[in-house]
Design a protein that fits this description.
7-stranded mixed sheet, 4-stranded antiparallel sheet, mainly beta, 132 residues
Length: 132
Amino acid sequence: QVHLVESGGGSVQAGGSLRLACTASGVLNNTYCMGWVRQAPGQERVGVAGIDSDGNPSYSDSVKGRFTVSKDTAKKTLYLQMDNLKPGDTAMYYCVADFRICLTNIQALAALPGGYRYLEVWGQGTLVTVSS
């Protein structure tokens, strides 16, 4: 069984930066890829960034050019560098793992039945708050 543990959330002013990290413990199925999903209060979960099986990153349109996703395979850790943060980025950020992230870009997973809710493995989330 695998557990995902996020860290790095916090409160920043608009224009600031944060770096999130997600470390997998246990045996992560080697057919799984990892990504980030966020949920703002009262809103649906939305894919933010992911890395497919070829190592290609993908981003939602709302964060493209501001966020950078990367991974350290040896450390089983996924990162999300968030720059030029906006109040609209305020949300709980979840690290996720699922084989479907390996196959397509993170935004395309919104078309799954139930959206992102049924991705296989979830971390507990880390809160990001951006003030204006």
